[in-house]
Amino acid sequence: MTPYLRAKLLAVRRRISLAATGRFDPFPPAPADLSLSPSQAHVAELAAAPLRLAWTRADQGDPAAWQNAAREKLTELTGYWPAASDLPTRHLRDHEEMGGLRRKSFYLTAGPGLDIPVSLLWRDAGAWPRPAMICLQGTNSGMHLSWGVEQMPADPIKIANGGDYARQAAARGYLTVCIEQRCFGERAERVLPRDRGGLCATPANHALLLGRCLAGERASDVSSVVGWLIANAGTVGARPEAIYAMGNSAGGATAVLTGALDPRIAGVLASGCVGYIRETIAVRPNFEGQNVIPGILEWLEMDDIVALCAPRPFLAVAGYADHIWPFAQAEAVTAAARAVYEALGAGDRIAAAPGPGGHRFYPEIAWDAFASLLNGAS
Predict the structure, then answer these.
(1) Angle at 314 between CA 313 and CA 320, to 5 degrees
(2) Is the pLDDT of residue 317 over 90?
(3) 132 closest CA partner among 180, 176, 85, 179
(4) What is the pLDDT at residue 378?
(5) β-pair partners for 121
(6) pLDDT over 70 at 98, yes or no
């Protein structure tokens, strides 16, 4: 039998096995006393992760000093480096009113080869200037979901499940600021061939080559827009002291990291994204790497990152049945981070709110809970 025919037979055998069992593993079972999978070695190390700068391992004398040291290390690990505030605005466009909602779109050039799509949405009624809410979509078709536009087959379902949070925020009096995250929507990779590993794998790996990570680049983009908002507050009608960030899933993860790194973020509403690293992304398949910060467990855990937002209001929302970041994780992380909030006299400014279902945004729960935190802070 020729090598070609043998290869064909093996391919058929593999296909039948995958169809019948979902697996194809031609290798003999490993002896019971051996650990051969790479994940087994990593899991064995997770419990002993150094977390050298964790609040629980600090002298806990000066929370502000601890925040400065932890924020400096987090900046280093992520490669966080926002652009200056004087960013040129390109291709400015006013859109037709939709349901009483006005929208202005443009692009901010934040560096060589780096243009950030931004849309501002607001309702004419209400105070002016007004607080701003940065809205960040997760791993889906793009920021257009935030104002309720359907462009991909899954969009109607995502909008029905609460994904149009810019419309929701505008209805509550915010100037909403939609930022297209790297790898999604208009910022999906269109120059290189499509990556079989997903939308984010290639950009995440390329960021590592430059000493950064995709999560840090996304946070840098948000902070670049924050700088522009503050510099142009009088024109766009934003209150510089009241710029908040929110999002769900990968959008919420960016909101959390930006809030930790950028004290200009006045508060964070994080949905479906809060959990201990060692109990979520470190122990499950992670083929895109979009939330990976190199070396993070050498220094900090997620409760420390959340605690860098103190004393600013922080709300974590998650569904009880969220298969990625369940409410139990959000509750545990916020409970641990509360120690730093209390040390800064702000123990009532951090909370976790549960949703009844799975991995989605819960507007009927999130907005009122966040408003309660803001009212307490004021």
Answers:
(1) 145
(2) yes
(3) 176
(4) 63
(5) 103, 176
(6) yes
d(CA 254, CA 266) in angstroms, rounded, equals 15
For 130-142, the pLDDT digits (tens) are: 999 999 999 999 9
How many Å apart are CA 310 and CA 342, to the nearest integer? 9
Structure tokens at 218: 């996304």
Q: How many Cβ atoms are within 10 Å of 141's Cβ, its own excluded?
A: 19
Per residue, the 3-state secondary structure of 253-277, as one string, reads HHHHHHHHHCCCCCCEEEECCCCCH
The answer to whether the CB of 249 falls within 8 A of the CB of 271 is yes
For tokens 């006393």, what's the residue? 33
Q: Which tokens sit at 306? A: 């959340």
Reduced to 3 states (helix: H, G, I; strand: E, B; else coil), residue 358 is: coil
Is pLDDT of 71 > 80? Answer: yes
Contact 254, 145 (CB under 8 A): no
C-alpha–C-alpha distance, residues 207 and 210, integer Å: 5
